[in-house]
Amino acid sequence: MPKSEKTTEAPTSLKGIVSNIGPGMILAGSIVGSGELIATTRTGAEAHFDFLWLIIIGCIVKVFAQIELGRHAITNGKTSLAALNEIPGPRFRLPIGRRIFDANWFLLFWSIMFTAVLAQQGGIVGGVGQALAISLPLTEEGAERNHYISKKIAMEIAIEENDIEKISLIKREMNQLGAPPHSKDDVYWALIVTVLTILLLVVGKFSLIERFSIILVASFTLVTIINLFALQSYEAWAVKPEEIIRGLSFSFPEVQNGNNPLITAISTFGIIGVGAAELLAYPYWCIEKGYGKHVGPRENSDDWLRRAKGWMKVMHWDAWGAMLVYTFCTIAFYLLGAAILGRTGLVPEGSEMIQTLSTMYEPVFGSFARSIFLTGAIAVLFSTFFIAIAAQGRLCLDVIKVSGFAKLTKKQNKLGLKCLGVVLPLICVTCYVFFPRPVVLVLISGTMQAIMLPLIGFAVLYFRYTKCDQRLIPSKIWDACLWISFMGFFITGAYQLYSKILS
Fold first, then answer.
1. pTM of the full predicted structure?
2. Of all residues in the chain, what percent carry a pLDDT higher than 90?
3. Between the CA of residue 231 and those of 144, 328, 363, what are the distances in Å?
């Protein structure tokens, strides 16, 4: 194919640059549902405002690693796992039938994280199922359970707002509630959502994923931020300046009721912003967007250098723009969790997670809150599930290729993605069916991703200092930020390894 058909000059106008962003918003679509909606609010409920500083740092510090992985993909034309498989270290050769699976140590660690990510997506699809079960109960038992949980949560909030005499009365009423009715509506809806996801993945293309992400994330983020600002008109729920100052003072909350907020926060750090799974997925979206194709194969010409710099500039806009979106969204969710859930003592757990989270909108939107929240929750959680499965399917298929296990043609690659679009969602929903606790499933994945982060940080530094084109070497300030990012990854991973495994 002639060179002119392979490469494209990068846009220079703001309009042209904005029209070519997209991979970052896909990442934002997969981020908002798991880390922000579930894990971040849980951290706010447990730690109150004390970890605001950690939430902000967790969002910002990872973007440097994200951009560096994108830079390597654009300038070298290699996917994340193809590049990571070239990192020096032990290799493992495993005969499977007549074929040999040849992978390095990094790909093996990724395989472990991959299983945790599937469990996380089981929690996500379960969250969608819970939201739909509340909105549209399928059975009489489901309707009764919704009524029970709503009544229970309302009583818990009332305790926070009333005097001592009324508190005693409310507590007696709570004791009389008894056990909640049993219902499988959330499981039924999770299965229905899984089937819908499979259909979309089988027929979906990059453009569908991109548009889907932008619309859903933008709408729910806007509603959440509006809700946070509107909350300031209510004295009981307003976020006070001194609470913000405390949240930015690098403080650590105390252990209460057996819950260690630091453990939850570190797990959350592994997910919020760009998690390990999203970091590895980003180069794939950059490649499918066409950034690498526009630049063309690496060469020593001035034309290639100009295209590389131009499209890396577009990628920078893409990554930083998405970072601003999910950072503001993360802060909003954290403050809502601290202001409402933290003050009322409500911690989202098990099958009551969605209904508990919906209380964050009630002070502003009243009885209409549930509808607003449920619509948004269904949208972003489904977006997260859909995008994450699409990304993991690409990573999984890439492992088969880079390990030398099989060489796939373009047609076989498309067929493989469709097959994984069926298998992976079924695995995820099975996790929820047998373990219907979305928060726990998400935090387990957060733990594994947090442990994976130092390895990704090491890989990023390896690419920067051994694979970066000398004509594209970044500034010393950028290198310093990369090292800060690596230190954040290392501390997070080391703490998770010690607290969850070694101890």
1. 0.81
2. 24
3. 30, 16, 7
